[in-house]
Design brief:
Low-confidence stretches: none
Number of domains: 2
Radius of gyration: 19 Å
Shape: globular
CATH topology of the largest domain: 2-enoyl-CoA Hydratase, Chain A, domain 1
Number of strands: 10
Helix content: 40-55%
CATH superfamily of the largest domain: 2-enoyl-CoA Hydratase, Chain A, domain 1
Largest sheet: 6 strands, mixed
Distance between the termini: 37 Å
CATH architecture of the largest domain: Alpha-Beta Complex
Number of helices: 11
Length: 260
Amino acid sequence: MASPLLLERSGSVATITLNRPETGNAIDVAMAESLLETALNCAADKVVRCVILTGAGSMFCAGGDIKTFAEADDAGTIIERITAPLHMAIARLARMDKPLITAINGAAAGAGFGLALLGDVALAARSAKFAVAYGALGVTPDAGTSWLLPRLVGLRQAQRLALSGERIDAAEAERIGLISSVVDDEALGPEALATAQKLAQQSGSALRRTRALLHASYSSGFETHLEREAEAISSAARGADGREGIAAFLGKRRPSFGAD
């Protein structure tokens, strides 16, 4: 049997590909467990400085494997076996010390919708479609969808998409701020790789601290967050990348940031 997930490295960029195209890359237990293992490996790999998440075939991810739910004696139990490693993988990808790019190559629904939103940069093929799609099954969102969605598009748009299950195209997703940008289908892979390579050349420590500040901004008051910013920028300036960045700026040259 083919692996439910593929990992390819190109220099300092790792590409994770959901690899069940015959099911629309629907997430079963094996894929969820594989995603967790791969996320942990990418997060720990000091050579990897940026990660891309995409799907094989014509869909990004159709969400949970509904056929698996139906065949189980207890659908709730099999869903728990999927969401436990899936949510751990999502948390690791969100908190790792390197940026994540989602290259949304087709439809993203259910848990696939949550995975699509997870990227620090979310690039969608022009043919991509998005749907929260839980209500039709009589279930509720997972994969971080109900946390990410209102933060990206605001409560009103989140209510529109989550409660109605409305399906939107890539242009509308870009218009409301759900994704970063739309690219032509054939350009998605090269654009994602080029973006990842640019991010990989930046200061890893600065990107790590910036990601952490953005995540923390929703859980603290303004003065507390100012203190976090002050601590982060002073720590960064003391580090090797900060010293190199300042010297390069004054020397009018391109900085050379090291692995950290």
